[in-house]
Sequence to fold (479 residues):
Amino acid sequence: MATAYNLARYHGITNVAVFEKSYIGGGNTGRNTAIIRSNYLTPEGVAFYEESVSLYKQLSQELDYNILYSERGHFTLAHTDSAMRTSRWRAEVNKHLGVDSELVYREDLVKLIPQLNLSEDVRYPILGALYHPPGAIARHDAVAWGYAGRAAELGVEIHQETEVTGIEITDGRATGVITDRGRVSCGKVVQAVAGASSEVSRLAGVKLPIRTIPLQACVSQPLKPFLDPIIVSGSLHVYISQSDRGELVMGGSTDPYPRYQTSSSLDFIEGLMNHVLELLPHLSEVQVMRQWAGMTDMTPDFAPIMGETGIENYLIDAGWGTWGFKATPVCGKRMAEMVATGRVPDMIAPFRLSRFNQFDLVGEKGAASVGH
Amino acid sequence: MKQLLCPLNGLRNIQEFTHGGEVTVQPDPNSCSDGEWADFIFLEENKAGVVKEWWCHTATAYWFIAERDTVKDEILRTYDSSEIYKDRMEFSRPEKPSDSVSKLESG
Fold:
């Protein structure tokens, strides 16, 4: 959707159709925990997500639609010496690339997050954190609606409840898309179907290095605002932020095995709450209100796949695992640039599909919900 | 709690197991191209439907094969790998070592 908007708005290409099996924003866009940050580990990743953060900051103005962008400050807690070392490494890479990011210690956290349990008498005492002041949250549905609304005004056709059932390939070149409501011929196809990437690319005969694994999340009952920052712990597999509605939005790690299913489990909520209560014990009486899951397309190097597929005019935008929502604006901008100019933008070249075949992986250990 | 029938240990909680990925055919490492090897280690069928996978009972380090429906989240059948693999995998040194191998040895 972001790609379609950028094509229409910045490249004057308005004969674009978007096919959505269900409804706009009903997939992973509305299932993530809406965190936006750029404090990744690899130079490729940091530059990419930093552009995304800068686009997000002005997105409400650009789309004339309030996405409730709220800058909170983002803390990645470190509970071990090795996590402290990785935090320092990330902070240095971030600073080198102009991203506001620093290592803070337990004494600093007392002042920065007074709500946090900094006791040493717990299973995983907190030693410090990677502090990223520009870390933010936004209303994720509004991002999808904003892009869709403006794209439609510019002439983009949006077909909801239209399932893509086939990709027409003639002489190694994509020439059309078959849907359950008919065939559409086209010059170029962009596949952007997080959660179903392998199944849709199979229609075009492209095999991907992706495993589809559910990631569960939940929200608490609404509370008065008490928690400004976003708190993340890689070791405990927890992230917590308080939304503008007052709900605590909490997520954990990806499920232990792949599935095409968005069911929730008691195992997950028990494990997550154990860890949440270690960080914020005063929440013990708070009710969990809703629980859900999204399907994450995990790649071996925790980085996305963008660009050419080996089939002419068939471009891919996939492998968005647990890092998709925060990349929406930059991904839309750069994919549109690629469609319009026919050239691969430098910024997304490291994320090409052929990197696997060339043993040139990105190794993005700064991704969320992965053990590192 | 979901449970999985281990061919060695019987019905156990699924948390005791580690998912090991799709059962695939390994190309001959001595004769395949780099591209074929990359495809083998990175690409996945990742099918929505019935898949055949390696699983390991972590506590006993026992690897076996499970057939599972990834849409319904149901385990259909589990069995010992000897049902498919009759011979040991050959990992012997190639007769004519390639350039990269001889460099490693001399360096």
Q: What stands out?
A: The domain at 3-106 of chain B is CATH 3.30.2270.10 (Folate-binding fold). Chain B has one domain: 3-106.
